[in-house]
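Tip: read the tokens left to right.
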């Protein structure tokens, strides 16, 4: 039997005979081969029940194949990209002597980790409605669904931003390879040109082709460039036949943002259906709807560098929300339009939305409170005693030198003592300020007030204490400093 005539199960078994595949991998590879009457989930359920699909074997196989060529973090990312459970990834990493770090921002100046939510929309027969085809400018069905998604993201950008909100991710967003807090849609040069034509001329008569990357190396051929391009600073980017939502942190469950995306798009599709089903000329009505939607929601489309100050200014002019922290993002849960969205489609009630708001505000405050109290204990019981012990040794060294001869210079010791004494005083003052800020925040009556206070008052006090400690770390003797330094963690072999 030719490969082209194989059943879904036959295709799956052929893929599994080549190497271990996760359920997520098989679903992705088989989706484009689904025919009318096929039930992809039933096929995968059957293979999983018969142990042809086994997550543990997938994890072990990948480690054995790739561990020699990949660093720890890259290996962990590959394991997670297979759709494997975080607990399984951790267990597999530990068995092989790796550390699985699932934290959005583990250390200052060091990249944290996040997730990419690959999102598309298909029919019940497996047709991908976000597949543009060779000529997307002529593909009315694709343009209609694309316009619908753009409108959904623009209308409910606040909810999407909320779905990627937590203490660690606030620090990750806008850092290296993480998108900013402004929700925008990246379309690539090809689709942006189609959109431009629709808005400016009322129709899209042409479509840009992918260009060529000239390597300039005689032994390396020129490479074709994808017209959709890539942009690591975009939070919601079109990548060929799907969107990638890049905001979520590594510790977050993607069901939250998918629930929002699915519900928001469902709302817009329902509105489109209501309008188009009664149209006398479906094609003309669809084209008019696409143009109107693009014109009204074009503001959310942005293909440039999301890290620049210019984009923040431009986004503000466009009226796009820029919620840089969790307490600012969470009120989206109790916005009337968002409550109406979830209630209309039977996803969440008003009470459930309000409960989530209260719980998530409380959770944010508790996390910051734990971090602040931990910092206070470290500063009081570890760092200040270490600084004082080192100053004592430096002072004894200076005294010993002067005991030999009063003409021996102790300028170096004096400068070190003055600097460390200044840092110790700054740390002591910062400890008092931080403790006062924590006490004041905890005394506030509502969870929203507490969360705002922890962000506005406690976090800056923590930064001030951190700055003094970091400065002292550069001076204090290595044997005296009780915490691992960056040099030990990152550079010592």
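Filled-in amino acids:
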């Amino acid at each position: 039997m030719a490969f082209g005539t194989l059943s879904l199960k036959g295709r799956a078994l052929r893929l599994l005979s080549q190497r271990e595949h996760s359920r997520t991998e098989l679903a992705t590879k088989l989706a484009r081969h689904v025919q009318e009457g096929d039930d992809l989930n039933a096929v995968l359920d059957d293979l999983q029940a018969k142990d042809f699909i086994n997550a543990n074997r997938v994890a072990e196989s990948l480690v054995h194949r790739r561990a020699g060529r990949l660093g720890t973090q890259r290996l962990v990312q590959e394991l997670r990209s297979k759709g494997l459970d975080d607990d399984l990834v951790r267990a597999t990493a530990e068995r092989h002597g790796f550390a699985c770090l699932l934290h959005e921002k583990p250390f200052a100046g060091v990249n944290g980790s996040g997730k990419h939510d690959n999102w598309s929309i298909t029919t019940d027969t497996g047709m991908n409605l976000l597949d543009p085809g060779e000529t997307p400018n002529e593909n009315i069905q694709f343009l209609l669904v694309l316009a619908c998604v753009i409108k959904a993201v623009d209308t409910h950008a606040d909810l999407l931003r909320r779905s990627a909100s937590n203490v660690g991710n606030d620090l990750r967003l806008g850092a290296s390879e993480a998108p900013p807090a402004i929700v925008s849609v990246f379309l690539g040069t090809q689709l942006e040109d189609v959109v431009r034509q629709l808005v400016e001329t009322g129709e899209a008569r042409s479509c840009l082709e992918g260009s060529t990357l000239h390597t300039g190396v005689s032994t390396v051929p020129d490479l074709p460039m994808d017209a959709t391009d890539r942009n690591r600073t975009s939070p919601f980017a079109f990548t060929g036949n799907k969107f990638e939502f890049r905001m979520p942190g590594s510790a977050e469950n993607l069901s939250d943002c998918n629930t929002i995306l699915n519900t928001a798009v469902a709302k817009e599709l329902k509105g489109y259906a209501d309008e188009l089903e009664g149209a006398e000329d479906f094609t003309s009505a669809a084209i008019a709807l696409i143009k109107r939607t693009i014109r009204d929601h074009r503001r959310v489309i942005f293909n440039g560098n999301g890290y620049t100050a210019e984009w923040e200014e431009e986004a503000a002019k466009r009226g796009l929300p820029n919620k840089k922290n969790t307490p600012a993002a969470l009120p989206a849960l109790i916005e009337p339009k968002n409550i109406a969205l979830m209630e209309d489609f039977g996803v969440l009630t008003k009470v459930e939305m309000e409960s989530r708001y209260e719980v998530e505000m409380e959770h944010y405050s508790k996390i910051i409170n734990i971090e602040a109290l931990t910092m206070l204990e470290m500063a009081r019981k570890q760092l200040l005693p270490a600084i004082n012990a080192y100053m004592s040794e430096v002072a004894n060294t200076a005294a010993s030198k002067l005991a030999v001869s009063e003409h021996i210079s102790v300028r170096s010791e004096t400068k070190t003592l003055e600097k460390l004494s200044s840092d110790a005083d700054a740390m002591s003052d910062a400890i008092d300020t931080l403790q006062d800020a924590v006490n004041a925040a905890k005394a506030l009556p509502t969870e929203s007030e507490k969360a705002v206070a922890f962000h506005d008052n406690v976090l800056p006090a923590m930064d001030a204490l951190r700055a003094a400690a970091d400065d002292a770390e550069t001076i204090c003797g290595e044997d005296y400093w009780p915490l691992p330094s960056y040099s030990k963690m990152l550079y010592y072999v």
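The longest strand covers residues 117-119. DSSP finds 19 helices and six strands in the chain.
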